[in-house]
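Form 7-S
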Amino acid sequence: MYSKLLTYLEFVAWIGRMKPQMLLALMTLLSVGCQVVKLGQVDLHDPKARDEIISVAIEEGKLQKRGKKGEELYYAPDHDAPYTGWAKVVYENGQVEFLNQYRNGALDGPFTMWRENGRMESLETYREGVLHGIYEDWYPSGNRESRENYENGKRDGPRLTWYEDGRKQSEDNYRAGKLHGASVEWYPNGSMEEKLNYLDGKPDGTWIYFNPDGSERHRESYRDGEIVND
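Output:
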């Protein structure tokens, strides 16, 4: 017991001798690098928050994949437990390219990609190694290109895409990975191009196609995936 107390007192004394900068770095490592931060707790658009995570993230190339095929997990070098924390890939100019999060050796949390100029390119969300949550893409200009949601690796909910000028390009709906409900596309001028409908991945109901001037070009009807002749 005496030896344990002495070790603790020596540790406290060592902390007391640390320079403020070193102490801050240690606290950052303990608070950021050693725990999984959920997407809602970190704003990766915030340069300060992002830089703190990058400073403690391990290089992706140093992680080791181990285990049976199809059941592989990622480990930090010389560690027996699967890796939990952040990993990164950096461009030659020092700008971060990828920043992703692991929990117990599998992707879990945000997986973010930036272009070499620092603009965000895509954001994926994982849970236990599969897509689960928001998935977004951006054009090189920085304008949003698409946004959708995944549940256990399958598209689920609305999927929206935009033209680079910000006008909506399409809106679909998914349920358990299959198109379900209305599916609409627009021309670059903003007028509707087509309005379709699906039921569990199969064409269903009335499909209408329009000309760029808004006039109707053609329509057809479906039932249980088969076209219905009027």
